[in-house]
Design a protein that fits this description.
By secondary structure, the chain is α/β, with parallel strands linked by helices. Helix 4 packs antiparallel against helix 10 and helix 5 crosses helix 6. The structure holds zinc ion.
Length: 312
Amino acid sequence: MAQSPQHPRQPGPRAGLRLMHVHAHPDDESSKGAASTAKYVAEGVDVHVVTCTGGERGSILNPRMDRPDVLANITEIRRQEMERARDILGVRQDWLGFVDSGWPEGDPKPPLPEGCFALVPLEEATERLVRLIRDFRPHVVTTYDERGGYPHPDHIRCHEVSVAAFEAAGDPERFPDAGEPWQPLKLYYHHGWSWAKISSLHQAMLDHGLESPYADRLKDWEREPEWEERLTTRVPCGDYFGVRDQALLAHATQIDPDGFWFAIPREIQTSVWPTEDYELVVSHVESTTPEDDLFAGIELDRLAETDTRESA
Ligand SMILES: [Zn+2]
């Protein structure tokens, strides 16, 4: 497990709070929750991104970067892209050290490649994440929902590992060699692609006489009211959409500057949907939903009484 240099923490009104995002691949931290990450960093929160795999099997999705020399060095290039995004977002980042499972293409789908993240025994991956949780001691952890956000095998595995580690980290009987127990207080899932958000952005594009990138997606969208009601938490972060976009662009092999991610003008995003959205799944503190803050119910001054060890 490679330890990356730690990003110096910024002073701010919320210094002392710690947030951990667990993601499957380099670029996921920039495409999911990046603006709320930047907002919390600006407020002094210490944010730690854990990247489960190196993204070795990702395709090159930016035509400018689709070159043999890039493909031949994709592992190293994605590592450098991640370092740039880390610095833009102002987070610490660690690799969990597993190999990308790839997106299985074909019907029927081919078997997953030997040794990939999705095939590693759950306990092994969980122990590695428990170790990072006990070391960083986050108050809040985020991950994907049980469908993975989208059904990439690494995203589903990332969900399973995160949920298992969130439960195990505070239990002294689980993984006793992986550090002193630490129980994070809240667990969230990302909900970045709600029908309400996508249909609102779609309508705003049409109202401005612009072409919406979501027409086909919405035509086939089978709404699921129970799923939609799971969203509990909308974090206002429109002021940080620019930072999010810079972090996305740092992943130059994955993100086409002329493509999908930038199809909606930022002003429309900021006026129509200036939040990033989450589902509160587990809470060990009193908090009432709906919320607008991942740390709702977590009081810094009360933490100080129980949290005496200076954070690493
Ligand atoms: Zn991913």
